[in-house]
Amino acid sequence: MDHHPYTPIGPHYETRHPGSLKRFLLATPILLLVASSWRWSSLMHDDLSVPASLTVTSELSKVTFHGPIPYSTNTPYALAGSFQPKSTHSHVDANGDKDNWNICRLVQINGLYRHGTRYPMEKDYIKMNDLLQQLQTSYNATLPHWLQTYSFPYPQNASELLSPSGANEMRGLGHRARQLADRFNLSKHYDPTAFVFEHTHVLRTKQSAHAFVEAFFPDLPTVDYKCQPEGHDIPLRFFSNCPKYLKYVRESTNVSIQSKAFEASARATHLVQTLQRALRLPPAPWFTFQHLKSIYEACAYDVALFHDTTTHAAWCSLLDRDSLFLLDFHSDLKKFYECGPGFDISVAIAAPLLVDMLGTMKRGQGFQGYFRFAHAETILPLLCLVGLCPNKTLLVASWTDDDIQSRDYKVAHLSPFAANLAFHVYHCDKDNTTQMRIQVLVNEVQVALPACEPKAFCTLEDLETHFADALTYDFEKACQL
Predict the structure, then answer these.
(1) Is residue 381 part of a domain?
(2) InterPro entries, alphabetically (predicted)?
């Protein structure tokens, strides 16, 4: 393979070259997500409470792994708060000094939102349904009773679309954003010069934007949605508009070296054999890890779509607790390299989006709200770019159970369905001057950016200085083959 060194965007992303792209490129410093002591969604705390049914686990459960069960990118937003520390409403910086927020007024919400819970991708639905048909045709008499007559409770033509539970997630986000806006007297009425709602060409992001707007503007105005045509939507779909990234990462075997190593391991063989026993199948060489993945997908979607592990999520009864945690890790192994710090370019190409977000925060722009609706592949690199993507070490297939349990990089924490990264812009009047303070929130929990420490907030100057290399990143040049 030819050497194709990647252009770093700053000191956080050291380019390791020359060498094959199969060499894993790790961001050098430890960037830890530090949750602060305020959660603005406490305004509607009940909205984010975890349904009791989501904490139910299979009777086959072991005790190696603990905590709420994660499902990588298919984790429902209701579980997002379960992975965050509890907090109270106060503003304390790293030195313990309270900032005077009584002099501040919110002037803008500037956010990026992943779409809400969707139905399976069509290719995944086909795999799931083909496996179901094969099981029912060849082994019906010995299968668990519920599986003998089972059919999926959603049709193939719903594939990839926003689900009712996903629409509810987005309406909840819109409702809580409206409550915050009302506290600071931001406009209740839609004005295209003050509020921008942008989505990608993919229908589920448009559906998510509509659901959010339904709650943010209850009078349901006619909204002008912004959408760049496919192939020209670099800020929100940089990952599909960078030829070098597509060739050497996303569409290459480089991205799945560790996940494939996991699939070839003795651990994976044990997982497959355990599932075969749960299905009451005889030893069958045709039943592989790919079939295990399909059943895991079916389980994850049942939880995300129905928030119920007892009525609909019968697939989860086939997988013990350890298996679910290990399969979540298997999914994260790929995302770490595809959308995370495993390769420099996977993160660097989010620079145009950061440029867009910081640019729309500047004084004189007049925006009270700028809301973008996109994908996991959008939000994960952006979180890493701004220093909120923990990566103490590379994720590798050979990790022990303890390594997996204690790892920092967990996609379910960062990008569940409806995941969000928001900048709340405040103007604070003091001594006849106005200071801009920016709070950063991940999944509605305020966090401290490493770029702004020890303060619990940022200034625009902090961000522009720290991310100067990203702001001058030449996307077109970096993406050329």
Answers:
(1) yes
(2) Acid_Pase_AS, His_Pase_clade-2, His_PPase_superfam, Histidine_acid_Pase_euk
In a domain, 199, yes or no: yes
Which domain CATH number covers 85? 3.40.50.1240
Task: Please report the DSSP string for 56-79 in residue order.
Answer: ---TT--SSS-SSPP-GGG--GGG
Name the domain count of the chain.
1
CB 343 within 8 A of CB 25: yes
pTM for the model: 0.85
* Position 444 in a domain: yes
Report how far apart, in Å, the C-alpha atoms of 174 and of each of 154, 156, 169, 299 are.
26, 29, 9, 28
| Tokens representing residue 95 in the block | 């030195």
Handedness of CA 237, 239, 244, 246 (dihedral sign): negative
Strands (DSSP E) contained in 346-450 are: 369-374, 420-430, 433-442, 445-448
Q: How many helices (H) and strands (E) does the chain have?
A: 17, 8
Q: CA of 51: how far to CAs of 76, 116, 231, in Å?
A: 11, 17, 40
Q: What pLDDT shows up at residue 283?
A: 85
The closest alpha carbon to 132, from 291, 269, 273, 281, belongs to 291
Tokens describing residue 145: 């009773």
Q: Which residues contact 210 (CB under 8 A, 6 or more apart)?
A: none
Q: Name the nearest CA neighbour of 373 among 159, 173, 74, 81.
A: 173
Per-residue tokens: 308: 């119920």
* DSSP bridge pairs for 195: 369
- What secondary structure letter does DSSP report for 355? H
**Exposed, middle or buried, 414 (CB in 10 Å: 0-12/13-18/19+)?**
buried
DSSP per-residue letters across 299-316: HHHHHHHHS-TTTT-GGG
Whether residue 270 has pLDDT greater than 80 = yes
pLDDT at position 347 is 97
- Asked if residue 25 is part of any domain, the answer here is no
- Rounded to 10°, the helix 351-359/376-385 angle is 80
Q: State how far the Cα of 466 lies from the Cα of 188, in Å rounded to an integer.
A: 35
